Amino acid sequence: MITPLTFPVAPAQAGAYPTVAPVRPRCIDKESLSRPLPAQGRRTLVWLMVAMMGLFAATPATAQDLLPPAPYAYKQLDDPAQEAKALALMETLRCLKCQSQSIADSDAPMAGDMRHQVRERIAAGEQPEAIRQWLVERYGDYVTYTPQVRALTAPLFAAPLVFLLVAALLLRRRFRKTRGGKP
Amino acid sequence: MIAELGLAMLWLASALALLQLVAGALALTKRGRELAGIVRPAAVIQGVLSAGSFLALIALFLRTDLSVKLVATNSHSLKPFIFKLAGTWGNHEGSMLLWVTVMAMAGGFIALFERRLRDDTMLATLAGQAFVSLGFYAFLLLSSNPFERLAVPPPEGNGLNPLLQDIGLAFHPPTLYLGYVGLSIAFSFAIGALVTRDVGPAFARAMRPWVLGAWIFLSLGITAGSYWAYYELGWGGWWFWDPVENASLMPWLAATALLHSSTVLAARNALRAWTVMLGVVAFSMSMIGTFLVRSGILTSVHAFAVDPERGSFILALLAIYIGGALALFATRAATITEGARFAVTSREAALVVNNVMLSAILGIVLLGTLYPLLTEAFGEKVSVGPPYFNPIGAIFFVPMLIVMAIGPMLRWRDDRAGRISGKLALPALAAALTALGLVSFAPTIKPLPFLGMALAAGLAVASVLPLVGRDLRRTPLPVYGMVVAHLGIAVALFGVGSDSAFSIEKLVASRAGESHKVGPWQVTLRSIEPVAGPNWTALEATLAATYDGGRLSLLRTQSRNFTTPPQLTNESALHTRWNGQLYVVLGEEADDGRWQLRLWWKPFVPMIWYGGLLVGLGGLLALIGRVARDMKRSRAEDKIAYRRARQGR
User: Tens of pLDDT along A50-65?
Assistant: First the structure.
């Protein structure tokens, strides 16, 4: 394996960046974002942490990456129709580790595992909605970008109807007044 | 020394803003009339001072003055020049200083150039601008001082987040800020007009070029931001309905509605209260967006400093400004009549429909962005993403597109549908032919891309129709602007539809020499070699691609390792043809020594950004036309006044 040269970084320089290990920007997770310097009281602990992460910086891989990804994390299904089905589903599932990306768009190991699950289940003939339900049961509503229709999310779906009604009312009032009258 | 000078200029500028507010407000009363003379100069000097303060910060970053805390935490002496410069606004304090500078300079420009408004409305507007600025000066000086010194300067700086070390991103914040903060002018105009109850065509004509200017920058900023997400994030997506993206889309939607309603107000003296309301809403959306991404309520690349104190400060500012403006609107709205009336088939009516639809889309985006926060407050986490925004947005977008095709051909006040139905046959035919072509060649196409592409074809034809049958040399520039901007929407929509319907994705594990097929492309991995840049090292994959057996083109994609601070980013490689883009990203090495490659063929995808550029260009044409006409008119008025003065003598 060709390893690119990495220069270990002095902990002092890495202070503002809690994650010193390589971070993939395609999964912009909380750790890859810069933070203000920590408060005085937490200094010692942070230095310890930073020093530890400084060691990690010398290796271009994080611990999680050392595990081989699940087979279907980066492999497509052979049947194009099934792959299309899987992709459509993956695009509507949220990567739980990232800031705001679907599992189809994420490089986080967890998203890879989820892609593997989705592809395998699609290949086994499961319906996409059943897989979505299975994931929702495991991870909660947060995992699906398609809001599930229930009491909590009802306002989301009522909103367009309300907007349409208000718009119709506003427009009707304007035009009714004007129809007969002279401008 | 430079830091202290910058800070002093900032304090002076805020003092002048206070003077501008007090003098402007007093000058509106009977006894304070003599104060009117100092309001304009105060605004101009305030603009100059805050620009000076911002230049001071730029100088500190270019010199990498590590005794300044902001420089030490965000810069590095080995950074390339351009990123030292961009580092000035690539952090919380610097970007807030940029915000304040843009706002103060906007006020200065109004004070210098705006001559069409009534004197008292002008005073109220400048006082309003100063009032809004003051809050942000306070925020900057009290809780985010960019010029703070360190007692002991560190030997080296921390560096800039590698994600932000990209040439596109270096200029993305200033562009977007000019748009965001430029809308503060619309806000101040609305406040000024509400205070003096002076809402009419003159007000709309005065406000329009400023809104247009801000809107051009917003359009270009969103286009550039979307292209950045596309090539830098490396997953081929270009819009994720991420809260941060929505935060920039919402002011754009409001400003677009405002542009169209101010046209009605300027031409026909109708929609008065509605236009003023939109002026308030547009900048409110900018502030809400800033709050969302800056307070740390949402974690994102844009939340530079997650600090509850700062978040509450912005929230307080939001409450004061939006609440105050809405309260003012509520007390004054009753005294502003809606103005002239119009028939159902008229240009006004089409613009009203456009406004209603844009507002509804704005409502959907706002609700969808805030809803997860609301449910989280009740202890439940939900996600609202593309499967919600796309279809629900389309409910309003599709009717808007149809009206957009028809509206420009209608006459003001009253028109007959029969007069233009002949002309409309052409776009209808274009849409029908496209639909037919799609159904026969791609029977499995999904409904939304299908609808989008068919409507885009119709709209493209319809948008040019207003020029047909006109003397092209005597057609005013703003009409060309409208045609180009509407065409831009059609072009972008076609790209969006084509990308979501026809993109082909291939994930492969590849050895040097192996070849893969993606759509019409044959892509061969040639080699993988290490390379080094100024502050990174990388693995570079070289690929050879041929389109349909044609000419060979080389692509290089890198997986970069930044050293200060350490981070891994992937640089995608793109090959653009007239009919689409080939998109290649290098992934990881697998156990057996093969390399992961992600390959996409995206037909017509660049049209999305060409469309965005066309929209910006259309705005620019309209702006040039308006400003040229205003200058011509004011010269003519000067001449008349001069002659009168001479005759009187």
Answer: 443 344 333 333 333 4
Tell me the whole-structure pTM to 2 decimals: 0.87
Going from N- to C-terminal start, the domains of chain A cover 11-66, 67-173
Q: Return the number of CB contacts < 8 Å for A and B.
A: 208
Chain B, 499 to 558: residues with Cβ < 8 Å from chain A are 505-507, 509, 528-530, 532, 537-539
DSSP string, A120-161: HHHHTT--HHHHHHHHHHHH-GGGBSS---SGGGHHHHHHHH
Q: Under an 8 A CB cutoff, do B383 and A32 touch?
A: no
Give the containing element (helix H, strand E) for B588. strand B580-589
Residues B85-143: tens digit of each pLDDT: 888 988 889 989 999 999 999 999 999 988 888 889 999 999 999 999 999 999 999 98
Backbone angles phi, psi at A94, to 5 degrees: -90, 135
Among B387, B413, B439, the domain boundary falls at B413
Give the whole-angstrom CA distance, residue A93 versus residue B359.
Answer: 29
Q: Report chain B's mean pLDDT, rounded to a whole number.
A: 89
Res B559: pLDDT: 84
* Residue whose entry in the numeric block shows the structure tokens 């080995």: B78
Identify whether residues B517 and B479 lie together within a single domain.
no
| Contact flag B395-A91 (C-beta cutoff 8 Å) | no
Give first-to-last CA distance, chain B, whole Å: 57
- Determine the residue type at B145: N
DSSP collapsed to 3 states, B116-159: CCCHHHHHHHHHHHHHHHHHHHHHHHHHCCCCCECCCCCCCCCC
pLDDT-derived band of residue B342, with 50, 70 and 90 as boundaries?
Answer: confident
Q: How many CB atoms lie within 10 A of CB B387?
A: 18
Chain A nearest-CA residue for B360: A163
- Please indicate, yes or no, whether residues B466 and B324 belong to a single structural domain of this protein: no
- For A94-103, letters b (16+ CB in 10 Å) and e give bbbbbbbbbb
Block residue for tokens 């653009």: B576
Neighbouring-strand partners of residue B507: B598
| Sheet architecture: strand order including B552-562 | B515-518, B521-532, B536-547, B552-562, B567-571
In a shared domain, residues B449 and B544: no
Residue B97 domain boundaries? 1-164
Q: In whole angstroms, what is the distance from residue A25 CA to residue A18 CA?
A: 15
Q: Is residue B183 part of a domain?
A: no
Instruction: Give the pLDDT band (50/70/90) at residue B189.
Output: very high
Count of domains for chain B: 4
* Answer CATH for A67-173 from 1.10.3720.10, 1.10.8.640, 3.40.50.300, 2.120.10.30: 1.10.8.640
Please name the residue of chain A whose CA is at the shortest distance from the CA of residue B375. A152
Q: Is B367 on the interface with A (CB under 8 A)?
A: yes
* Count of helix runs (H) and strand runs (E) in chain B: 17, 9
Determine the 3-state secondary structure of B601 from DSSP. Answer: strand
Q: Is the ipTM of this complex over 0.85?
A: no
